[in-house]
Amino acid sequence: MDIYEDHTKSLTDSVRMSRRGFAVTSLAAGFAAAVSPVAKATITTDAEGLTAGEVKIPVKDGTIPGYRAMPAKGSHFPTILVIQEVFGVHEHIRDLCRRLAKLGYYAVAPELYARQGDVSKLTDINDIIKIVATVPNDQVMSDLDATVAFAKSEGANTDKLGVTGFCWGGGKTWLYVAHNPKVKAGVAWYGPLVASPGMGGGTAPIDVAADIKGRVLGLYGGLDTGITAENRTQMLAALKAAGDTKSTIKVFADAQHGFNADYRPSYNEAAAKAGWAEMLAWFKAHGVA
After folding, report:
1. Is-catalytic flag, 224?
2. What is the pTM of this model?
3. Which member of 7, 179, 257, 286 is catalytic?
4. 3-state secondary structure the chain
5. Domain assignments of the chain as residue spans, ordered by start
6. Among the options 224, 244, 262, 286, which is catalytic?
7. What's the pLDDT at 21?
8. Less Cβ crowding at N or C end of the chain, within 10 Å?
């Protein structure tokens, strides 16, 4: 059975369902309050030549907001799921979708905490983590399946399906590739690799290494104090034990966690540009282009 079949069949019913129980029904404007002030290095990608904006994505129990960008001309574009960092689908994540759309992709980022809470206006990272820690992994996988079904309904080419995620979303990237065998390639930016009790624990990438099957490139900072060299070594060992000789981890020695986040002090321009090029090459090599 098609992994998206039940989502596709229920699109109309889902739209009709009440939004009661959803804490977030639309995306907040701008950047997450927790990262103020925004750095001067922030990259802003315009929407010229694109169809871009907020969308409502039907899921099993209603709809969740998301951001979608694609070229204004043409159709059947390769699909990239963009999985939010811990701060949700704020302006940085939306800008990343536009950057991908400028390269010919249909890029879509669903708001994956929509039921649990709105983190956009929270200024204390500990308050954000309290919400994020309550988001069940099964819910995330189901919402990502629904997002692929939504992309397909808009004419995107989901046979050429890639996924990329950042921070929290980097960890979910590994997990979604393991969950969905139709994903051709994933690129995980500084995502957790082992279970993190402070983020709710649960299934971690290292637990699903046997199901990844050569499709994930991990991009990590050598100065990241949260995701250690030991964690990376453990993940590589798990992949090797599973017979996966193609998935790999690239380490940028002088980069911190969040090195692609150009709106934050952690931004490392050289690592970010190199990582972006690595990502595009990985997608192309795996047929997501």
Report:
1. yes
2. 0.92
3. 257
4. CCCCHHHHHCHHHHHHCCCCCCCCCCCCCCCCHHHCCCCCCCCCCCCCCEEEEEEEEEECCEEEEEEEEEECCCCCCEEEEEECECCECCHHHHHHHHHHHHCCCEEEEECCCCCCCCCCCCCCHHHHHHHHCCCCHHHHHHHHHHHHHHHHHCCCEEEEEEEEEECHHHHHHHHHHHHCCCCCEEEEECCCCCCCHHHCCCCCHHHHHHHCCCCEEEEEECCCCCCCHHHHHHHHHHHHHCCCCCCEEEEECCCCCCCCCCCCCCCCHHHHHHHHHHHHHHHHHCCCC
5. 5-285
6. 224
7. 76
8. N
